[in-house]
Amino acid sequence: MINIKDLPDEELFTAGHTACPGCGVALVVRNLMKVLGKDTVVYLPANCLLVFSATYPLDAFKVPYLHLLFENSAVAAGAIRRALKRLGKEHVNVVALAGDGGTADIGMQALSGAAERNEDIIYVMVDNEAYMNTGIQRSGSTPFGAWTTTTPVGKKIMGKTEHKKDVMKIMMAHDVPYAATASPAFPADMLKKFEKAKNKEGFRFLQIYTTCPTGWRAPSEKTITLAKMAVETGIFPLLEYENGLLTVNYRPKGKYTLEEYLKIQGRFRHFTPEMVEEVKRWIDMRWKWIRTIEEGQKVVSGGE
Amino acid sequence: MYEVRFHGRGGQGAVMAAQALASAAFKEGYYAVAFPYFGAERRGAPVLAFTRMDKQKIRRKNQVYNPSFVVILDDRLIDLVNVSEGLNPSGAAVVNTRKSPEEIDLGMEIKVGVVDATSVALEVLGVPITNSAILGAFAKTTGVVSIEAVEEGIRDIFGGRIGKEAGEKNAKAARVAYDRTVVGTSRGEKKMVSKKQWLPTVQELPLGLATRSMETDAGLVGPGSFVENKTGSWRTFKPVFNRDKCVMCLLCWFYCPEGAIKRVDGGKTLEFDFDYCKGCGICAEECPTKAIEMVRD
Ligand SMILES: Cc1ncc(C[n+]2csc(CCOP(=O)(O)OP(=O)(O)O)c2C)c(N)n1
Ligand code: SF4
Ligand code: SF4
Ligand code: SF4
Questions:
Q1: Whose alpha carbon is nearest atom 4 of ligand 3?
Q2: When you count CB atoms within 10 A of the terminal residue's CB, does the N or C end of chain B come out lower?
Q3: What is the DSSP string of A138-206?
Q4: What is the C-alpha R_g of chain B?
Q5: Nearest residue in B to A191, CA atom
């Protein structure tokens, strides 16, 4: 199993990119590229990552990348894979690096189609919980109550009125060969998932928690602290779905409270006790579902 | 007509400064407009904003190319960007710096007002955001608007955006900076050059824009070429590494978004690449042995 120490020194995602200081997206992509290696082709839709690392003719990727549109990442990556197969280059990894807006909302139909056809690609949902590139608009993946420019805080509403869309569950419903969520604050777990995704065949989905200090109104040095807290509070569970079975990779040990997590981020500053309760209710509901699946799996495999 | 060009960094609030100046000018009986340069710049990257002020109605809508005044929110931008491009020799420059006017080289001898706005901001606001303080220096240097009008403009724009109390604090930052501003004349020795751009001919343009990694007279282009863009000057704080405390867990190396921490000496120790470190502070925050400390750069 790959460890931090085993990562190569060479940067396939180079310095000099223009991400904000402390950007979780840059941090994750830099390490993902180290695991995937040189024989990789990247697809980038419109998002922060494209704009801070691939502004033609400057390019931070040392591997080829393609950019077409915002809404077609999974299909475009699938097409690259098919073309490479024709050229006899089966060993090349094809990875799409799409934002949460580009995944949960506008890219969803392309994603669903590609997953259903089991296109042989790695699809990464870089989840910074809003449309950041265009200046912080809410996405389906923005959490409940979060301030964004399109879910303002005022008399009528106090941030987003809906909860975060569960894209992992949607991918599980497609029965893809591999789907997982990961957080950079759990390096061994994240690297294991990168490696698994690399070595498997068929459609592989990763949802990575990527702190956005700018959009979340959080101090840049808290990027990893937040990624740790999100898992510890249960708001972002670390899960894996493989061969039709769900695994929980980490059980929150309550090292941080939800209140602590919310407090660091300006996007939650306006939270009332009722809003905190609502988030707790939602977290409990989701964990109940996760536990139900786990228990059910045990019963079924025990009965066989 | 007075035209002002602000050179700032994304996240420093150059646009708000331009707006507050326009509001101050309005209070002085001018017509005024403020607007940003439209780009995709992130926090820390060089950005532009503009203000126009005139006693008559302003019909001009284009960018400012021949400013009467330039306002430079970070003196390290002077080495990165041609800040005096098109600057009217009878105008002035306003610079956030710890240097004296005579130490500032703008490639032309011109009236320059200097203030350590970062320290003012840290003292008064507690954060290194200099967009309000620099306006105090603007008032002192140019005399086009009074410090009272600047304070009003800041209360108006900042107060409306980030709350009354914060508006008041920012007005105070401008006043403190006004009192500390030193006006003199810049040196004009340096040759200011605008960065060249890669402009291939139609014949040279690769099919589908699939650019190879190439060295051009404008620098590197293609895969890996972003290394040309030294982001080290974005920093306000910098990590100081204490080798004796380090246990080589490599967490900082793993977590640095810039890849600015290198394994050296056969993996025995680390080196920080200050050409790229943006000073985010993640490495210091996550180091389990507190071997890294952030200090003012
Ligand atoms: C069809 C289309 N609509 C809108 C846009 C403008 N646009 C570019 S990037 C972007 C936001 C991307 O958000 P997300 O996918 O969440 O990625 P992030 O920038 O947050 O990483 C938008 C709306 C576009 N390029 N194409
Ligand atoms: S806005 Fe957020 S995601 Fe985009 S570059 Fe800045 S920190 Fe990264
Ligand atoms: S301060 Fe941030 S950019 Fe600089 S070395 Fe540390 S982690 Fe890297
Ligand atoms: S995190 Fe601290 S102990 Fe670990 S390698 Fe970096 S400096 Fe050394």
A1: B277
A2: N
A3: --TTSPTT--BTTB-BSSS-BS--SPPP-HHHHHHTTT-SEEEEE-TTSHHHHHHHHHHHHHS-S-EEE
A4: 21
A5: B254
Contact with chain A for residue B41, Cβ under 8 A: yes
Gap between the Cα atoms of B195 and B89, Å rounded: 22
Mean pLDDT of B43-48: 84
A18 Cα nearest atom in ligand 2: 5
Task: Report the C-alpha gap between B172 and A143 in whole angstroms.
Answer: 37
Amino acid at A237: P
The reply to whether ipTM tops 0.90 is yes
| Helices assigned H by DSSP within A17-165 | 24-36, 48-53, 73-86, 108-116
CATH architecture of B231-296: 2-Layer Sandwich (3.30)
Nearest to B174 by CA among B212, B133, B128: B133
Cβ–ligand 1 distance for A131 under 6 Å, the answer yes
Q: What confidence score (pLDDT) does residue A303 get?
A: 53
Q: Give the domains, in start order, of chain A with CATH numbers.
A: 4-303 (3.40.50.970)
Rounded Cα gap, residues B13 and B73, in angstroms: 9
Average pLDDT over residues A63-90: 97
Asked if residue B79 lies in contact with residue B99, where contact means CB atoms within 8 angstroms, the answer is: no
**What is the pTM for the complete model shown?**
0.90
Q: Binning pLDDT at 50, 70 and 90, where does residue B80 land?
A: confident
Q: Which residues line ligand 3 (CB under 6 A)?
A: B 239, 256, 258, 260-261, 272, 277-283
DSSP B291: -
* Strand blocks (E) in B27-147: 31-36, 46-54, 69-72, 92-96, 111-115
Q: Is the confidence at residue B208, as pLDDT, over 90? A: no
Out of A27, A50, A212, A220, mutate this one to test ligand 2's pocket (max ligand atoms within 8 Å of CB): namely: A212
Q: Domain B2-185: state its class.
A: alpha beta
pLDDT digits (tens, 9 = 90+) for B69-79: 999 999 989 98
DSSP B46: E
Residues of B in Cβ contact (< 8 Å) with A7: 254
Q: Which atom of ligand 3 is nearest to the CA of B255?
A: 7
Query: What is the tens place of the pLDDT at every residue in A159-168?
Result: 999 999 999 9
Residue nearest to atom 4 of ligand 4 (CA): B249
Which among B209, B222, B281 has the least Cβ separation from residue A221? B281
Report residue A78 as tokens: 């699938």
Q: Best interface-test mutation with B: which of A220, A223, A225, A269 has the largest number of B CBs within 10 A?
A: A220
Give the confidence band of B40 by pLDDT, cuts at 50, 70, 90: low
Rounded mean pLDDT, A109-129:
98
Q: In the prediction, which pLDDT does B88 show?
A: 96
Distance of residue B277 Cα from the nearest chain A Cα, in angstroms: 9
B246 lines ligand 4 (CB under 6 A): yes
Report, as an integer, the average pLDDT of B207-222. Answer: 88
pLDDT band at B288 (very low <50, low <70, confident <90, very high): very high
At A218-228, the pLDDT tens digits run 999 999 999 99
pLDDT beyond 80 at A304:
no
